[in-house]
Write a structure and sequence with these properties.
There is one protein chain. By secondary structure, the protein is an alpha+beta fold. The protein folds into three domains: 181 residues, 2-Layer Sandwich (Beta-Lactamase), CATH 3.30.450; 94 residues, Helix Hairpins (Orthogonal Bundle); 140 residues, Histidine kinase-like ATPase, C-terminal domain (Heat Shock Protein 90). The protein contains nine helices and 14 strands. A hairpin with a 5-residue loop joins β13 and β14. The longest helix is centred in the middle third of the chain and has 53 residues. It starts with 7 loop residues before the first helix and ends in an 11-residue tail after the last strand.
Length: 489
């Protein structure tokens, strides 16, 4: 069960069904209440019309025994006086409730053949009217506006039903204030409400089933590409083949963007892994040469001490040490090491790195950047080492401020770098001069390290043509305190 409802498809279906169910229950309840109120109101209107008709006859001095409203089969009527005494009731009325009096048999006060009770007479009624309070608002023969409503039951000729009762007051000329209770059956209201409720009980589950089914199908179709992406990613993980790609649906929705992003991530991961493999292979190849040379010298020295080339052994050891340091720095940069956030004066750093080097001229103005002094010094040293290997007579280092950037230029008067190779020289273990020995040309890591450090400091390192015809390397870094003066991750 937990696995079933752990899927997005199941949760979406359940959520949609619950939302629709709540909406249907709320709408159904409101519909039933409105229907019941309307039908009850209609029944009350009918009851009021019946009570008004009887009250009109009473206002016209119609004797109780000749009231036409007492003969209606589906309209129970009661007439009571101010003391709550029942004066008249509908024929065949056997039981009643909800009208204020449960009496169905009139009080035995009639003594005249015309149906008027023994209290009828102008002198008697006038005295009663004079004895009432002066605040009575109804005049003799006047019917009160409006009615009061109650619900109850009545049994007429053996049939018991629910009724809506209306009570209307009338001021009669001969009997004083009387109240007429008339009822209208609520059978239509009960029938309509019951029919609507039955339809809802049958229709709502069917509608919820349709909603659940449609949501299940639509969600399944929408998530089908996601399942394809998951299966392909699982296959890529199992096979470790980063050349494979997940299928991209021919849509423009979130799933298609997810597939494209996943493929871009796989491509970047493939490039990174391939780069790391080449790096390991090249590093192994570069380390093999000085290690083998040093081992050979040591083995010869062990057999023939007089043949020991101490200078060569020291040189191979230094080369091995420098290469290990370069590889260690590259490993730290690849791991995302952040440079320190100290302020560095590039002019002072350039003069420091140029000190002791022949043919190097420094033209610098004070410019401060934020970063690692050691790493930035390594960049300048690598650029100067590269320039010294290719310069004929002169190397120029310039430091200047340009907008919100510090620009460091290292130019030589050598042969320069062909435009097609100006990006390739920043790749690791790349040497443009194949004939150059490793002793003279290094391992091909200097420029790669310099660019990586520049990027980590939020800057750039590019190669171009120098005014003197040689190569020009420009290092651009954000000034200290500028918006770009933060290291990139």
């Amino acid at each position: 069960m937990s696995r079933l409802f752990g899927s997005v498809r199941s949760r979406a279906t359940l959520g949609a069904t619950l939302v629709v169910a709540v909406a249907l229950v709320a709408a159904g309840t409101a519909l039933l209440l409105s229907l019941r109120a309307n039908l009850t109101g209609e029944a009350g209107t009918r009851a009021e019309r019946s009570a008004q008709a009887v009250a009109s006859e009473l206002a016209a001095r119609t004797p109780l025994g000749k009231l036409s409203g007492l003969d209606a089969e589906d309209t129970p009527v009661q007439i009571v006086d101010e003391d709550g005494v029942l004066l008249a009731a509908s024929e065949d009325l056997e039981r009643i409730s909800g009208t204020g009096t449960s009496e169905v048999t009139p009080a035995p006060t009639r003594s005249h053949e015309d149906g008027r009770d023994d209290r009828d007479g102008p002198d008697h009624r006038d005295d009663d009217r004079d004895d009432r309070d002066d605040d009575e608002s109804l005049e003799p023969g006047e019917i009160a506006q409006g009615a009061s409503y109650t619900n109850g039951t009545a049994t007429v000729d053996g049939d018991t039903e629910d009724y809506r009762f209306a009570a209307v007051e009338v001021e009669t000329p001969d009997r004083g204030r009387l109240t007429v209770h008339a009822g209208a059956p609520l059978a239509a209201e009960h029938s309509a409400v019951g029919t609507a409720l039955t339809a809802m009980l049958i229709g709502f589950p069917l509608l919820l089933g349709v909603v659940a089914g449609v949501t299940w199908l639509v969600t399944g179709r929408a998530l089908r590409p996601v399942e394809g992406i998951r299966r392909e990613m699982a296959a890529i993980t199992a096979s470790e083949d980063l050349r494979r790609r997940v299928p991209e649906p021919a849509t423009h929705d979130e799933v298609a963007r997810l597939a494209r992003t996943t493929n871009a991530t796989l491509a970047a991961l493939e490039t990174s892994v391939e780069r790391q493999r080449r790096f390991v292979a090249d590093a192994s190849h570069e380390l093999r040469s000085p290690i083998a040379s040093l081992r050979t010298q040591l083995e010869v020295a062990a057999a023939h001490p007089e043949l020991l080339d101490l200078d060569g052994a020291v040189e191979d050891t230094v080369r091995l040490q420098n290469l290990a340091a370069d590889l260690l720095l590259l490993a730290r940069l690849d791991a995302g090491e952040r440079p320190a956030g100290t302020r560095v004066d590039l002019a002072a750093l350039a003069r420091e790195e140029a000190a002791g080097r022949r043919r190097v001229t420094v033209e610098a103005e004070p410019v401060e950047v934020s970063g690692s002094r050691g790493q930035l010094g390594r960049v300048l040293a690598n650029l100067l080492d590269n320039a010294e290997r290719h310069a004929r007579e002169r190397i120029t280092v310039t430091v200047r401020r340009e907008g919100g950037e510090a620009v460091v230029g290292v130019a030589d008067d050598g042969e320069g770098v062909a435009e097609a190779d100006r990006e390739r020289i920043f790749e690791r273990f790349v040497r443009l001069d194949a004939a150059r020995s490793r002793d003279d040309g290094g391992a091909g890591l200097g420029l790669a390290i310099a660019r990586d450090v520049a990027v980590r400091h939020g800057g750039t390192l590019t190669a171009g043509a120098a005014p003197a015809g040689g190569a020009l390397f420009e290092l651009r870094l954000p000034l200290a305190g500028s918006d770009r003066g933060t290291a990139r991750p």
